[in-house]
Design a protein that fits this description.
Blueprint lengths: L1 E6 L3 H12 L2 E5 L2 E4 L3 H15 L8 E6 L24
Antiparallel strand pairs: 1-3, 1-4, 2-3
Length: about 90
């Protein structure tokens, strides 16, 4: 599984980025998406970010991509509004 989290200050750019990521995965929280782990999928996403979005990001913007493995521990706390399955806690 791939986890993508972002913090983008500009509302218009954040909405555009969110719509882009929604094509590939499921929203877990407002700025956190879960994507099926696939080398091809990850390559497509990174290529799109590199070629389309990165030049639009300001100093306040960031995107975090976490590639998980089957050995990751999964813990769930509280209520996740946008997802019915577990979340991965990295650390």
């Amino acid at each position: 599984m791939i986890i993508i989290s972002y913090d983008i200050a500009n509302d218009k750019l954040r909405t555009k980025f969110s719509k882009f990521i929604q094509k590939y995965g499921n929203r877990m929280q407002f700025s956190v998406y879960k994507i099926k782990n696939s080398k091809r999928m990850l390559s497509v996403i990174k290529n799109e970010i590199d070629n389309k979005f990165e030049k639009l990001f300001g100093e306040e913007d960031s995107v975090l991509i976490i590639e998980t493995s089957e050995n990751c521990k999964i813990s769930k706390y509280g209520f996740i509004k946008h997802e019915e399955s577990d979340i991965i806690v990295v650390g």
